[in-house]
Amino acid sequence: MTTNLHKHDGVDDLDGLAALEGLVSHTTTNGVPTLYAPASGKEITAGLFFRVGRADETLATAGVTHLVEHLALHRLGLSDLHYNGATANAYTLFHVHGSEEEVVEYLNSVCAGLRDLPMERLETEREILRTEAAGRGGGPQNQMPLWRYGAQGYGLSSYTELGTWSLTPDQVRHWAETRFTSDNAVLWITSDHVPEGLDLTLPRGSRFPAPAATSALPVTPAYISGDDGHVVLTSVLRRSTAASVFADVLGRALFQDLRQEGGYSYSAEADYSPRDAEFATLTAYADALPQKQDAVVGGFVDTLARLRAGRIEQAELDSVRGKLLKVYDAPDLGAAVLPSYALSLLLGHPLLTPDQHRAELNAVTTQDLHEVARQAWDGALLQVPGRGVDWAGLTLAPQFSTTAVTGTRHQSLENEDVTLVIGTEGVSLFTPRGPVTVRYDACAAMTTRPDGARTLTGHDGFSVTVEPTLYKGVTPDRIAALDAAVPGGAIVRMPAREPDHIPQPRKRPPTARAAGAGGSVGGWTAALWLVGLLAAAWGVVCGVITADESAMADPEWDAVTGVWIMELPLLFAAWKLFAARRRRTRN
Questions:
Q1: In sequence order, what are the beta bridge partners of 456?
Q2: Burial 396-411 (b: 16+ CB within 10 A, else e)
Q3: DSSP state, residue 460
Q4: CA distance 238 to 454
Q5: Of the candidates 562, 575, 576, 571, which has an alpha carbon nearest to the alpha carbon of residue 532?
Q6: How far apart are CA 356 and CA 88, in angstroms?
Q7: 157 half-sphere exposure, CB direction, 13 A CA radius
Q8: 3-class DSSP assignment, residue 268
């Protein structure tokens, strides 16, 4: 069933769609906005977008969107059909390529699965998602969202999908019913018509705007330390044609400076990716051998400095512009641009016709790129291996909390300089370099173990782990008080650990003070024995002299004096030994 496209809660760009007539057609299918344009060949491709992704979740429910995606695809089973599902930060996509009949069958099955999720598969799909995550790996850019956004919104892509451990069937079903709706979707098809037999019946709802961005960086440009062999920069830019051109210019400049001229890197590149309706993420990357890391960091910073100083050649801009303009020379242009138009429609970003985009590309100047380069640097987060880059004008991202809580203090059994505090407002871990605090009212998630272990993660990304085996006095009562203080929606119950996986205190190496005391004890003990032997020898000598002079009735006063002179150091040595032992006992 098809009807004219209607406006969904003020987010559809009707004027932009009207301007695309002749290139892209549009209608609705069971209430789902649908874009279509023909492509050569007998087979067609389709994509069903939903405006829901990882950034819409919380840390405690992370993975719920991915779980719905897997459950919706289960009924397709084994098939030769080329299909897939993908969960990104701001959207979920169900993608298929095949004959018209196969595409209809796939899309109908997806929507049927979303209407009635096979909850008997829930536990199995949880395991599949955890296995998938274990094999995926993090990658050199994995920690960048966490440091920029914290443990919420767009920062959740840095975290494991904690929700796979504790989400209930009702939570998963509710997420599907409210987020995977006809009003929160856009369909695109590479065909000159909407295939007959499509049944995209879904619950009605509303279009959700992309999540507002959070920030865990009080100051930018900032930097963090990362793994050896990788230099990564991210920045958030307002979406524009000039910003997309700059990403290509930056990638070419890094490749030329770091690989072709410097010979420091093999891969040096940059990417521009829309984040929401208004902003995009710029990512730049270069690899390095351990012995050339400093050179790569220096070259990376120098390249950025050159671009933001305005030293951009017209030839660089012309080369990039020519490459981007060639996109519009492609055959089946309407079909080629369908995915980007559908995503822009979904996110609420204005739609540009090819002529409008060509005009914007031709209008970009080197001065525009200079301005984008300055904006990119002002909002930059740079990950570098090894030493910091304060010399380049970047500030180290916060490593510790600015506040701490008061409460019961629990000394670490492994390090006397570390103390855990469990309070009524939150928990703090005091270390020699600074505190780490998670407040209960800003707790993104707390994982719990049957053995009493708790890990609290704050919205700012800071985390404190409470292991009863590693701190003095962390009794079940203290754990119970902590559990009662954390909001129930933030609690993630984890399975029991094997006994040998429960951490036990390591033997503390002797501190410098204790080691010094021990050395003093040994030295003074030796001195004590030496002085005692000398005193005894002196007494024997004096006794012999006195015996030879037996005619004298009184003892020899010089002998007595000599013995006492020798005993005074003996008494002093004994006092030092006693004091050292007392110090050792306190340590």
A1: 446, 464
A2: ebbeebeebbebeebe
A3: T
A4: 40
A5: 571
A6: 28
A7: 18
A8: strand
Provide the sign of the torsion angle of the four alpha carbons 340, 343, 347, 348, taken in this order: positive
Query: What integer pLDDT is reported at residue 547 of this predicted model?
Result: 34
Which residue shows structure tokens 């004008």?
393
pLDDT at 13: 66
Mean pLDDT of the 550-578 span: 40
Short-list 336, 358, 355, 240, CA closest to 24? 336
pTM here is 0.84
> How is residue 139 written in tokens?
């990658």
Task: Name the one residue in this structure whose structure tokens are 């050569």.
Answer: 40
The predicted structure's pLDDT at residue 38: 96
Tokens matching residue 10? 């003020």
- Cβ(444)–Cβ(151) below 8 Å: yes
Strand ranges inside 335-386, DSSP E: 381-385
Q: Which two tokens stand for residue 539?
A: 């007494």
Model confidence over 366-410: pLDDT tens digits? 999 999 999 999 999 999 998 899 999 999 999 999 999 999 999
pLDDT surpassing 90 at residue 512: no
pLDDT at 476 over 90: yes
Residue 348 backbone class (left: φ over 0; alpha: ψ -120 to 50; beta: rest) = left
3-state SS class at 573: helix
Is 214 within 8 Å of 275 (Cβ atoms)? Answer: no
Helix (H) / strand (E) element for 396: namely strand 395-396
